[in-house]
Amino acid sequence: MNDAAKRVERLRRELNEHNYRYYVENSPVVSDREFDDMMHELEALEREHPELDDELSPTHRVGSDLGKGFLQAGHIYPMLSLGNTYSPEEVEQWLDRTRKAIPGEAPDVVGELKFDGTGISLIYEQGRLVRAVTRGDGSRGDVVTDNVKTIRSIPLQLRGGGWPDFFEIRGEIVMPWKEFERLNAEREFNEEPLFANPRNAAAGTLKLLNPAEVARRGLDAYFYYMLGEDLPHATHYDNMQAARAWGFKVSDHMVRLRSEADVDAYISRMDAERRQLPVATDGLVFKVDSLRQQLNLGFTAKSPRWAIAYKFAAERARTRLLSVSFDVGRMGTVTPVANLEPVQLSGTVVRRASMHNEDIMRQLDVHEGDMLYVEKGGEIIPKIVDVDVDARRPGAAPVRFVSHCPACGTPLVRVEGEAAWVCPDKWGCVPQITGRVEHFVGRRMMNIDGIGAETVSALFASGLVRGIADLYDLSVDSLMSLDGIARKGAVRIVDGVRASCDVPFERVVYALSIPYVGETTAKKVARAAGNIDRLMAMSEAELTAIEDVGPRIAAGIVEYFSVPANRETVERLRAAGVCMAVPEADTAETSDSLGGKSFVISGVFEHHSRDEYKELIERNGGRNVGSISKKTDYVLAGANMGPAKLEKAQKLGIPVIGEDEFLAMIE
Ligand code: IVH
User: Fold this and answer.
1) Are the beta carbons of 600 and 641 closer than 8 angstroms?
2) Residues of the chain where predicted confidence (pLDDT) is lower than 70
3) Is the torsion defined by CA of 345, 314, 191, 432 positive or negative?
4) What is the pLDDT at residue 567?
5) Which of 380, 481, 578, 590 is 20 to 30 Å from 183 at the Cα level?
């Protein structure tokens, strides 16, 4: 083999290994940069030597949907969609057609909710969940078993008895409204892109590579379709009741309907009741109840003839655009917001609605004074979904996105690959400065009581506070010089500032407004660095070695600490007594009970999260390694350790221990 061929082979082997470690093991051992460099070298070699091409080369994954971290599996029965309609008349026509297709029998129909989430197929063997696969392209999907196992309402081991040895059950993974709103509020706060609706949030969450994060997001699942050779009953309805008894969540709103009148009544009743449901639904599904009749009716190429979906019309309101403002966030992101003639929409009065960013604004093609459609499909912030072009006033000018910062006049810049325009004047642009101070004092950051947006503005205008460090120089007297602040309020603020010195280091890191560093990232970064001096000194490569820190975040951190004004702020905060290291107790609680032994963690745990186990291993003198090899000393296995790993561990004779055993080792 010549040199090029050897090099190509080696690069492919290493890239495959790194891919595996990154996507499957979730524990990369090289930085993204190193990985990219290797990939580029391989691409160049393959270009120069077309004879060495191989369709399974890692270069062929780039840009495809595959390889985003999940293995794929084929569906035993294809996952089809449903024919749908928006009119009750068409539901009746479907019912008529169905009756004619099975003459002499009056088919019972089951009415149920159409859950607005993401479809999932679960396989159970001997009552145990063995695989969870997304819909994918209908014939193959991603294997997301680890993530699905974090959903508490999905039974891992079925209850009761009477289930077939092998069967499939399909349902919808949903994010309940409450969780959706919590997640979006958190994302808005961190200036991360919001999820447009619970469906996107559920689908996005299910594809996360970190099951611990999936677990945190509170997904839920409802089941509506059982498949298999030896199902317990001859009707859909009875099978679903059996599924409920085995521990699946099956909607209470599933009912048997015997007549057209029943169907109509069900539609009107559910259109009202769905507003009270804890999860998003976008309609109803009607299914022929008898499995034998279903078999007779069969499928078209795309959907079953034995079922139809009736979709609810989304709730929207039409109102006039008064003006468009451009809000500037603490990170400089400029968001277009429509100011509207107040309008009533599902229970609240809407005055402002987001147009998200320039791309979306351009798609909408909003003109001055336009009549707009506002939708609240459940989003916390209503959004503009359409324009009534016919009602446009003649000669109305299109609304343009601003080219300069509406607050400070600086030309805006657009970060490559992102939809947002940003004002780059971090130090002169008032809403950015005051936004960072507001963030700093917030409840989940330094939690300084008594300072709201108005006080921050007043403090800024008076010149008392020009940056977060100035808060620590405030005195009761200086505060009382401001309009509207009495002694009591001033004392409260000064006390609050003093108390903030006890806030743990990870929250301080979050409070600093480092680009892309949200609450979770701050925690990980703070714990990994241990103290501010180390954090300030870390390179991008060192930072990307921290779990969940990608190149963008790493670059944001390095850039932040390269700015002298930020370093000066840190020094002033330190001098004021703000906590700049993880607490002593955390580092003191160490032992050497694991004596340098190496561990591989796999599966989902009950007593601690994976991250916590990793930390426990390190604190007790052990080492975490990404994948099982001859050198691994132990495998710490949770509930659903992958069968391939288990096999490998057994083959190499590596002890597989459970949580309790592990905890006993470090006791
Ligand atoms: S039955 C062969 N029932 O809607 C038909 N689907 O538009 C199997 N969905 O892919 C699907 N609620 O993800 C069925 N009660 C329900 C449903 C439901 C939501 C989803 C499902 C399906 C899509 C079709």
Assistant:
1) no
2) 19-28, 32-33, 55, 60-68, 191-192, 314, 346-348, 377-380, 584-589
3) negative
4) 97
5) 578
Residues 307-345 pLDDT 10s: 999 988 767 889 999 999 999 999 999 999 999 999 988
Over 555-594, what HEC string results? HHHHHHHHCHHHHHHHHHHHHCCCCCECCHHHHHCCCCCC
Instruction: Give the whole-angstrom CA distance, residue 505 versus residue 524.
Output: 11
Ligand 1 pocket mutation, candidates 79, 85, 172, 306, criterion most atoms within 8 A of CB: 172
81 CB less than 6 Å from ligand 1? Answer: yes
Phi, psi of 114 (to 5 degrees): -100, 105
Largest CA distance in the chain: 91
With helix as H, strand as E and coil as C, how does 598-660 read? EEEEECCCCCCCHHHHHHHHHHCCCEECCCCCCCCCEEEECCCCCHHHHHHHHHHCCCEECHH
* H helical segments located in 75-157: 88-101, 145-148
Give me the catalytic one of 6, 68, 100, 114. 114
> Annotated catalytic, 311?
no
Q: What is the DSSP letter of 443?
A: T
Quick one: pLDDT at residue 67?
Answer: 33
Segment holding 270, helix H or strand E? helix 260-273
Task: Give the residue from 356, 293, 277 showing the smallest Cα distance to 115.
Answer: 277
> Measured between alpha carbons, how far is residue 490 from residues 299, 436, 455 in Å?
72, 21, 11
Distance (Å, whole) CA 13 – CA 18: 9
Answer yes or no: is the C-beta of 506 below 6 A from any ligand 1 atom. Answer: no
Long-range contacts of 545-552 (CB under 8 A, 24+ apart): 545/28, 545/31, 547/26, 547/27, 547/210, 547/611, 548/210, 548/213, 548/520, 548/521, 548/524, 549/521, 549/524, 549/525, 550/32, 551/31, 551/32, 551/33, 552/516
Report how far Cα 24 is from the mean position of its chain's Cα atoms. Answer: 18
* pLDDT value for 264: 93
Any ligand 1 atom below 6 A from CB of 304: yes
DSSP characters over 189-224: HTTPPPPSSHHHHHHHHHT-S-HHHHHHTT-EEEEE
Tokens of 197: 């609706």
Is the Cβ–Cβ distance between 666 and 591 less than 8 Å? yes
Cα→Cα distances 279→117, 317, 346, Å: 9, 22, 16
Residue 618 is encoded by which pair of tokens? 């390190």
Phi, psi values for residue 488, rounded to 5°: -60, -45
